[in-house]
Amino acid sequence: MKSLGKNSSIYFREALLFLIFLMSSVLSVNASHIVGGTIDYEFIQEDGNNNLYKVDLTVYADCSNSGSSTLFDFPAYIGIYRGNDNYELFDTLNVWPFQRETIDNPTFSCLITPSNICVKEGTYSFDIWLPRSDESYYIVYQRCCRNATISNIINPELSGSTYFVEITALSQSYRNSSPKFENPPPTIFCVNDTFNLNTSVIDGDGDSIVYEFCTPYLGGGTLNDDLAGIFSCLGTKPNPPCPPPYTPVLFNPQYEVDAPISGNVTINTLDGYIVGSANTLGQFVYAICAKEYRDGEYLGKVSRDFQVNTIFCPELVNASIDIPLDTIRECYGTSGIINNRSTLEDSIYSFFWTFKNDNYIDTIYEWNPSLSTLASGIYKSSLILNPDHLCKDTLEFFVEIYPALEPDFYFEYDSCSTTSINFLNQSESSYSTIENFHWDFAGLDSSNMVNPDYSFEIPEVYPVSLTIKDNLECYASVTKNLPWFPLPSEISVKPKYSDPKCIPLKLEVESNFTPRIDFLTGYSYSWEISDIRVTDNYSPIFDIVDSGYLDLSLSMTSINGCKLDTIFRNFAYTPPPPKAVFSYTPNEVSSVKPIVTFVNESLNANYNNWYVNNELIGINENSIEDYTFDVVGFQEVMLVVENEEGCLDSLIQMVDIIPDFTYFLPNAFTPNGDGINEVFKGEGVLREVSSFSMIIFDRWGSKIYETKNIANGWNGRKNNNGVILPNGAYQYIIRVVSTREKESIFKGTVILVK
For the domain bounded by 582-658, which CATH number is listed? Predict the structure, then answer.
């Protein structure tokens, strides 16, 4: 159980900020994502004096902020040295990781392990034949550098790592396999939590194992500017790794090999369990050695170098609210809500609140309870989480409810007038002093006076609120609706015509009221122009069909029953529309002489355009004189007129160009070969002739020539062949028909003279 005074949420936020900084800094140094490693071996078989071993290099990398493809070396450079005092390089290998898996963070009872801690395990495996020797073999992998944020060693950003395993001469002769760590290392120690974590090994040979904290070793350097630097002993990726002996890391003064972690953290020498409690946030490098004995003889050891994060792990269930004090003080009648900040909601299976006052107990099962149901008084209160579960918590606090204030007011005003409204305070308090008054006039304005006056601008129903505050900082409010619909003190109107201003037209009334009336609610309207009435619209639109000066009348009634009638003389003027009129002469027009004169006789027009068959023939001309048509039949003549307002009118008349012809015949002709007057035929305007026939007879009535082609004539010969007939008079009958079937018959005598 805890009281509200224990500010664990602040501690959690500080710890979380530290953790975010710590984790974001992990990648700031070259290869600082590598946080640990170990090497072990397994005897496979022998061949004469040679032993075959399977060797596993396991590397641990921080994957919190890195892509998995960049966490491990491709390849890892492995070195194998032989010797006891002087070490010779026996072999080198380049090995690629064959398996990469994310290891699970440890779990703790009733605590939350942060999800942003991520460690991935990469495994490099290879087989190697080693001749049995009286000297040890050292299998080595080196890499720089460690995280700059490590807490327990000196210059961590300049300190690399050496992971190695020694195959002693005795282990070679026994054909021994090294122990192998059974589980991945714990990635997290929760600060102030007692833990018991298994870091033991498995030994297939059944040898005795002794566990201890041992020293991590340095390895590599910070050179990475060229290939020679990178792969040298001072480079970030030594290739080959450098020979033994190796230099231990330098611990800060308050830490040592046996106590590498702040707090009371120890290792059980018999079972390999790490027990105790860490008391400081940070990152700590430590190493665990598992020493192997057979029949009392030392065979060798495996060690695991690792960087652990000590972090604050929030409680799985934590009762918390967002009030920093032990007492919540609220005024009666307010909708005070206690904001439940308890965590983790998924782990909270049941909860309730209790509020105790003398013999009164109120139990609430809402997540964020309202205090509005509590009467005035002081309540001893509790928030209880998971009362019947292992992980539970209780928070105790007090709630004090002050007695209620009684705000009230009324108003006085003339409902039909635009004069100011008087607001009169009637608030009361039986236990405290009202110190402040705040009037809110529908969000448009405010006042801190006790009894203010105020005027609105737009008729409407206004919610007016009064909020009072007493000497105990209690507030109370009351809101009343004020219907304000006075008659306007001033009205202005103006016409808005449709464009162009031509009858029939739309005429809109643009109105302005003081005070402004911007909507229909609260008023009824009746507008009238020329017996046209429009109701319930403060900007009416009329369909006007008459020209001249127009009067506008208005009748309006407010919701309060106030009435107003007014008339606006000569409100609008609509000009008379133009009228297109024209005449033409002659009334009948022959195609022989298709010439016409047109005269404009229009009314109320300022401009005109003349068109014949949609072709413009004149602009602003009062008459078109002697216009010649070039085709026959009905021709469309249109006059379009326009006034100053842009109003248009047009008149179309069809002028009939009557198809006609002229035909003239000679009374004699001389077919004597001199090239003059050789043929008898008619002449004239003949383009409108649709059919033609000419027959020539001699004096005895015999037909001597006939043609239906008006272009042909008689050359004085019978059928226009042979010799020229004798001089004398010859009869003719000619029939000419126009395109409109007008027939003309020509009969007469022509004299043939040789």
Answer: 2.60.40.10
